[in-house]
Amino acid sequence: MAPTKPGAATQSPPKRRLTRETVLAKALDVVDADGVDALTMRRLGQELGRDPMGLYRYAENRAALLDGVAELVLDDLSLTPSDPDWKGQLRTLAHDLRLLALRHPNVVPLLVTRPLSTPLGLRPLGTLRPLEQILSLLVEAGFRASDALHVYRAYYGFLYGHILNELQEYIVDPDENEALLRLGLHRLPPKEFPRLRSLAPALAEYDGAEELDQGISILLAGLESQLKRQQDSASK
Q1: How many helices (H) and strands (E) does the chain have?
Q2: Which DSSP symbol is given to 39?
Q3: C-beta separation of 120 from 175 below 8 A
Q4: For 18, which of 109, 170, 200, 213 is 20 to 30 Å away at the CA?
Q5: Would you say residue 179 has pLDDT above 50?
Q6: Are 142 and 230 spatial neighbours (Cβ–Cβ below 8 Å)?
Q7: CA 116 centroid distance within chain
């Protein structure tokens, strides 16, 4: 190895070129680690080793950054609207969304609340694709467009409700859940709460995947019945 010449400056390795994808990926890392409130341009700049002001070329403000994180996460979901097995598609999507939520629990509140603060047409395209794909899937299956919209709202309302409930089960100390739940339920007055008392073992043994599948089965059975009635009425 040639000796370093006296006075020669030590060159630092070149910084990796930033892209919107790398910025959003690091933003997701911050949210995963410390929650949505921890995500600021200053924190993101520190994580990337860059001047925070330079990050505004990738997200014009913090709101756009949050939208980008939601878009990045939802990009992992996909449907095939032309697939005739619309029930199978919805069931698979439900389980995929549950697993995504378990991987990124700190992002779930963002997915639930961000759409409420942004008009539909101004949301990032990636956050609208699940809506467009489900509407297309259901219309291809025979649902009227207006009915497909009702289905979408009921479907995601159920999914997010289930996910938030499961994350609560997940966050609470799992070693104490069963003992505390059983103890609490068995202190209830027997004549006033006979059903809850009898369900104590089932309530204490929560299986998120199984609960989701049971709920989706109930929802899909109702949708299939609705579609059949609609088709029977149209054929008369």
Answers
A1: 11, 0
A2: -
A3: no
A4: 109
A5: no
A6: yes
A7: 15
